[in-house]
Amino acid sequence: MAFKINGSVTWVGKIDWELRKFHGEELSAHRGSSYNSYLVRGEDKTILIDTVWRPFAEEFIANLKKVIALKEIDCIIANHGEVDHSGSLPALLREIPDTPVYCSKAAVKSLKGQYHEDWNFQTVKTGDKLELGGGKELVFIEAKMLHWPDSMFCYLTGDNILFPNDAFGQHYASELMYNDLVDQCELYGEAIKYYANILTPFSKMVTNKIKEVVGLGLPVNMICPSHGVIWREDPMQIVNKYLEWADNYQENQVTIIYDTMWDGTRKAAEAIASGIKEANEIINIKLYNAARSDTNDIVTEIFKSKGIVIGSPTINKGILHSIASIMEMVKGLQFKDKKGAAFGCYGWSGESVKIINDLLQEAELELINQEGLKMLWNPDEEAVEACVNYGKEIGAALA
Ligand code: FEO
């Protein structure tokens, strides 16, 4: 499959309807994804922007050959070295070996580090241009840490198209391929999940890069990311959304995340939720059993929350592993401006609540209650009431 985006740009990527896990098993992709590769024809030069993930290399090259004789590709742009975009380079460059690969200096390291090949690298930096002929130029903009040190955007003058690689992308398979044609809830659900799970730690750099690019005053008719659909209707809507998301984003939401062995901590979670509701009627309260829910969906809910309440019973002087896993992600994603609270049941030693409190502080969340709430065995009426009161304290702190 290939389709023309306009007179000079053709999409030559791969829609991956089967994808359910990305980054190994780390990131869920409920709606598949696409690896977008673009062929740009100028009067003098034809260039290929990015390739597709390695398992599809053969199919990618076969499809590309239906669109162009490979020897007519004058150069390849590698906006980012990660394997979902560079994975077909080895096979492609076996066919057209000396073709220049334009990339950032850091991408030479990441590409050599992964493929151990000494290709014809041409390093570029922000402001460098590649003349395509007929008044068209490709302008390079380094985008370090969005989301790898090697990441780069490029901009096609004349057609006014930004190719930002991963930025503004979504793991979202759709044959419709344009933002104005797809279900907006699905699109934005996947876009925010992508931001929350991948870009959150780099939010400051997102803001600075967007200001830098917007400051260039370049008209943007289309944004062609490397995953998901192309933004052609009001393309700046996703740029503005990124500015909001990068600014310590939160909605009026609290998310209670727990795991439970014999329902004690679940009962406590529900009693805390009812206390929050009593104290704060308009806050959106969401509950997730971490062991039974998709981790990346929970992370997206955390991203949207002003507070999180984490519960685990004590096991082996520690916490249940689903909660440890979530807390590792909370720490790594470096959420800002969020409050946290801990709770949990125990039978004898009772370390879990202190452990969760320590993890919340390590992740730089502000504790709503320094002690947290721990309950001996399964909560009785008195303990349930303590949970409701704890919920009221949380609800008031988030008002
Ligand atoms: Fe889509 Fe960072 O690769």
List keywords for this structure.
binds MU-OXO-diiron, six-stranded parallel β-sheet, 399 residues, 2 domains, Metallo-beta-lactamase, Chain A, 12 helices, alpha/beta, Rossmann fold, 35% helix, single chain
Spatial shape: elongated
Sequence of strands across the biggest β-sheet: 1-2-7-8-9-10-11
Distance between the termini: 52 Å
Bound molecules: MU-OXO-diiron
Rg for CA atoms: 24 Å
Description:
Helix content is 35%, strand content 23%. The chain is of the alpha/beta class and 399 residues long. The chain folds into 2 domains: 3-246, 4-Layer Sandwich (Metallo-beta-lactamase, Chain A); 253-397, Rossmann fold (3-Layer(aba) Sandwich), CATH 3.40.50.360. Strands 1-2-7-8-9-10-11 form a 7-stranded mixed β-sheet. Strands 17, 18, 19, 22, 23 and 24 form a 6-stranded parallel β-sheet that branches. It has a 5-stranded mixed β-sheet with strand order 12-13-14-15-16, with no helix packed on it. It is elongated. The termini are far apart. The structure holds MU-OXO-diiron. Residues 80, 82, 84-85, 147, 166, 226-227 line the site of MU-OXO-diiron.
